[in-house]
């Protein structure tokens, strides 16, 4: 009898142990499931990180500052002041490329590896940008190119991860050629001797020759030069009807073009209207016809009105400058894409979203062309005129050049 009781007791205890083990396993399994859900939720709620490359020092420092101001305001505008999209905060980290390609690569690598950014934006220099493009492909991250303009960025060096809100050299060229080129017109060019300048002249030459003009001389100057005497003399010796200038940076040639009385020799000057600091050196060019990427009085739309007002409010009464709307457009493009993906930062999904996407900017509607991811956009035919109370020649609108009119050739 005692033996039967012992056997029953052992069976009972075995049942208790098995039951307890099953409950424990079930509880652990439940914890694992709950933990996985929490991890996914935390990933979804993690901030979206954007790395911005800009020239905060070097020859294009002013352009870097304009772009950064525009980018900050663009995030504010596109998120209604929350800096948040689809429940995720947006953070951005700025790195100074120093306008040196090797530094740009170092800073971009740091943003991708240490800061683990979801997007790259930049850069002020075409040289810096071309050096960084392979990293976007290597790390499979979207790069919004702003304000670099070299054609090769969306041309020979194109990869599927880059999208450009900046206009490119060919868009500038179409606008510039439309202002002066015609049958029998002889044109000389002056540009800095690096990718921005050479791509700009190549694109302008193609557009101008299509309109019947002849390019009689191409002159390239050291990008860091401060003395352009010999360059300008070679242009004078070529005896063109027009000198078309492609330039970027603080060391502009306008004063020496004036000092050497180029226009008095029967050579008309034409160029893209630069930023406000460079406009202040262009008093001798009043009456010049050319084109503009942006001047705060040129676009007529609600976003530009907002930009001008907010910029004055935030930056001591200053108006937005040449590259401010580009920085804003880059930020708007990212936020609009994230709205469409509901905050998802999967690269392939973002590429599908961005290709062909249209979005509103201070310059009107931009569209990322699917073939090369170049943003088609409005440019402006202008004339430089004096304006009472303004201490520099002002670009006055002659007519808008539509995105379709300035669409560049696909070169990739």
TrEMBL record:
Stretch forming the signal peptide: 1-22
Entry keyword Signal: yes
InterPro entries associated with the record: BCAA_transport, Leu-bd, Peripla_BP_I
UniProt KW keywords: Signal
SUPFAM superfamilies attached to this UniProt entry: Periplasmic binding protein-like I
Chain ranges of the Leucine-binding protein domain: 47-386
Keyword Signal appears in the UniProt entry: yes
Top-level taxon of origin: Bacteria
Family, similarity comment: Belongs to the leucine-binding protein family.
PANTHER family hit by this protein: LEUCINE-SPECIFIC-BINDING PROTEIN, PERIPLASMIC BINDING PROTEIN OF ABC TRANSPORTER FOR NATURAL AMINO ACIDS
Protein name from the UniProt record: Amino acid/amide ABC transporter substrate-binding protein, HAAT family
